[in-house]
């Protein structure tokens, strides 16, 4: 990737006003009047700079509105039924060759079940993850063994984690705080800080989101440890949608996720969701036995 930030913005040039000639004329006629006009102009100019859009026009969101924004994100990502996606992952590590992988992601949102099955390269084919009853399990067919993992697990050794592929429950897990209305590239966004609710177990207890005001989709996310240390930054600049018969509405999903490791600088992961299928999946597939059969 050529840029650390997939967003950009453009600054227009400034043209001079014909008022300059007029002020010059007044100066020649009356030095006192020019001084007065110039002082007033400076006062007005400083006032305009002080009352920038961030200070004068920015919205302040109340708690209920912020919760509605989080609920909106949760609802758009949730399929209402079954979900299957073909995913491409590209891992960049400093001073190491890039690693490309391909995986199938299966979800049954009504039961909060998730399965990730790697298909490429051949050395990783058959490896997979299974989440059932809030437990995340990892299977390696080369040893034929299941291991329990945490939500901080780096999926396939990349910078991605389980939440990048799963449904969302932000409104149920976090309490929001409003930071401000900002510009992220050419987008106007709401900047929110989220702190995990008491008794809830998540990968990152502190999260910051930049949410596009126009669509309600998040464009940037930063994940923090409880100490406040920044762990990773991710950008979701492109979103796609697909109509779901199960929810009678559109399912939204990020087409690209750019993830940057903030601990091991120089490491990053690109996730591309190549296709999504919302057809009904086999009833008994979210089991260890089913994944094992696909690994043989």
Fold and architecture overview:
By secondary structure, the chain is of the alpha+beta class. The chain has two domains: 20-50, no CATH class; 63-294, Lipoprotein localisation LolA/LolB/LppX (outer membrane lipoprotein receptor (LolB), chain A, Clam), CATH 2.50.20. It contains six helices and 15 strands. The chain has a 13-stranded antiparallel beta sheet with strand order 6-5-4-3-2-1-15-14-11-10-9-8-7, with helices on both faces. A two-stranded antiparallel sheet has the order 12-13. The two termini are 35 Å apart. The relative contact order is 0.17. Residues 8-38 and 40-57 have low confidence and may be disordered.
Write a brief structural summary.
The protein has 296 residues and is α+β, with helices and mostly antiparallel strands. It has six helices and 15 strands.
Large-scale geometry:
globular
Beta percentage is 35-45%
Separation of the first and last Cα atoms: 35 Å
CATH domain fold name of the largest domain? outer membrane lipoprotein receptor (LolB), chain A
* Count of the separate structural domains: 2
Which consecutive residue ranges, at least 5 long each, have pLDDT under 50?
A: 8-38, 40-57
Tell me the CATH architecture of the largest domain.
Clam
State the CATH class of the largest domain: Mainly Beta
